[in-house]
Amino acid sequence: MSTVLNKVLIVGSAPDAVKAAHWDTSCFTHTVVINNAWKACPSWNCLIYPEDFPIDRHPSAKDMNGKRIVTAEDFVPVQNEFGGFVYAGGTMSFTAGYWALGALKPDVIAYIGCDMVYQAKPGQSTHFYGAGTADPLRSDVTLQSLEAKSLRLQALAHQNGCAVVNLSELENSRLCFPRLAFTALEVMTETPSFEVQEPSAVQAALRAEADLGYWVESGRYWEEHNRFDGQKLRDIDAMWLATAPELATL
Prior knowledge:
- The protein is an alpha/beta fold.
- The protein has one domain.
- The protein is about 30% helix and about 10% strand.
- Helix 4 runs parallel beside helix 5 and helix 5 (about 145-160) packs across helix 8.
């Protein structure tokens, strides 16, 4: 008898996000789209966006059709369960992952369109809808190493019995999750077993976070940015990078 896994798809706005429009997403219990990505994946059932997401980019009532909207009221409390925004990284790709992990309790979280590389040549698109703002690359003390933040999400997901994979076929990605083909995930009936990060290194990084105490219950960490020491956060990023030695030079 096959096992029905709780698989969650997270769709971002990179050019390859449009692949999801051609997939049979019925193998996922939830398809979570970030910001504008609802336009790239018609089969979405959860849309997550920040407080400053422009109203004119929201789906219409017709596009909603009973689907779920996830706002700060929903994701901030869940994010706080996993240590808060300063340590998780203040961009929606990671926020969506932590919300899915805490709220949907998946066995597998799969990403597409969230590589955060933005290496388009002149005349090429950075996002599936054209030229967009590279939000994860903005000057932000919580986003000094996107690789470290992805390893943190992966580690906390593993602690909660969830695997995180990257369905992207792009050559480069800032996400350090294992790559997996959609066709392989589609037929998967057992949680994939990838190499587990060093438990002692993970615990050391979490202890360093707790000792530093950069906690903002509201989630609006940018209102208190003056009290955050960038070097101390880089030191913690280095600890997360050390959970996967082959990535420590990124």
